[in-house]
Design a protein that fits this description.
The radius of gyration is 28 Å and the shape is elongated. A hairpin with a 2-residue loop joins strand 1 and strand 2. A three-stranded mixed sheet has the order 1-2-3, with helices on one face. By secondary structure, the protein is mainly alpha-helical. The protein has two domains: 188 residues, Cation efflux protein transmembrane domain (Alpha-lytic protease prodomain-like); 116 residues, Alpha-Beta Plaits, CATH 3.30.70.1350.
Length: 314
């Protein structure tokens, strides 16, 4: 409803003024309406529980939605540039710019508050769709601010070519926003690692590390909406039985769940070999082949890499 109201106000201001800068703002509002519909569809679909055809759930549709929104923004920018260049060639004919500026100011103010609200809710729920939609709404408000500056300059200077020039500047800014959304969408669909999340996982594991957790390696994760899917290899003493390893898995799963609600964890357990004795902190071990004499950091680079005793070996 807000989107339709903003579009109606802006397109009305365009017909009132014939301003290409105002038209650029109205064109972005059209994109926002279409993108909001896509966002609503993706949120509904992403909330469906996993099923036989989608065992990991439907959350990744949000990345697709963000990509579509980015493409729509690109399309709007092309239309704006084409219209502005045409206006430069034929010469702009402007009227009632003061009234148009007031309308755009009010629409931009509403969009600013709405954009910040959507981003806040999106971050709270880890919804890339709401965050993308909020960023687009904020971009719309920034566009309105730029348009107002352009219109006011035309009013005070009388130089009408500033209007289509500002429209092109707005379009270039929109193109950048579209690129960032598409970049984020592709990154999510390609399971691109988020270093902030990796650091958080590493810190959680390091903080809760036990002496007999000899080494964690080949840590991998991917994210779908607000859900984390995590797996890694954990080396334990070779004489631990299945019951002990299962207990460790349950405890680690609980630790991860406390930090990443709704996450899923898979651990591949490896048994220790003699080469690991020099790295092992487990003082209760009675079959140690060598004393411990080497420390290593449990940082992101280590945890996503090879077993400690194989580092440096081909």
């Amino acid at each position: 409803m807000v989107g339709f109201s903003m579009f109606a106000a802006k397109i009305g201001a365009y017909f009132l003024t014939s301003s290409e800068a105002i038209f650029s703002d109205a064109a972005e509002s059209i994109v926002h309406i279409l993108a909001t519909g896509m966002a609503l569809f993706s949120i509904i679909l992403s909330n469906k529980p996993p099923d036989e055809s989608h065992p990991y759930g439907h959350n990744k549709v949000e990345y697709f939605s963000a990509g579509v929104e980015g493409f729509l923004i690109f399309t709007a920018a092309v239309v704006i540039i084409y219209s502005a260049v045409s206006d430069i060639i034929k010469g702009p004919e402007l009227e009632k710019l003061d009234t148009g500026a007031i309308i755009i100011f009010l629409a931009g103010l509403i969009n600013m508050f709405l954009g910040f609200y959507l981003i806040r809710i999106g971050k709270k729920t880890n919804s890339i769709t709401l965050i993308a939609d909020g960023k687009h709404v904020l971009t719309d408000s920034y566009t309105s601010a730029g348009v107002i500056v352009g219109v006011l300059l035309v009013i005070f200077t009388g130089y009408k070519l500033l209007d289509p020039i500002f429209a092109i500047a707005v379009a270039l800014n929109i193109i950048y926003t579209g690129y960032m959304l598409i970049r984020e969408s592709v990154g999510g669909l390609m399971n691109e690692a988020n270093h902030a999340v990796l650091n958080k996982i590493t810190n959680v594991l390091t903080k809760n590390k036990k002496d007999y957790w000899i080494d964690i390696h080949e840590l991998r994760y991917w994210q779908s909406g607000d859900r984390i899917f995590l797996d890694f290899h954990l080396i334990l003493p070779y004489y631990f039985n299945i019951q002990q390893t299962h207990k460790e898995e349950n405890e680690i799963e609980e630790i991860i769940q406390n930090e990443f609600e709704g996450s899923q964890l898979k651990i591949h357990f490896d048994f220790c070999v003699n080469e690991l004795c020099k790295y092992c902190n487990y003082t209760e071990c009675t079959v140690r082949a060598f004393p411990k004499d080497t420390n290593f950091d449990w940082d992101v680079k280590k945890l996503i890499g090879k077993p400690i005793y194989l580092i440096g070996k081909s």
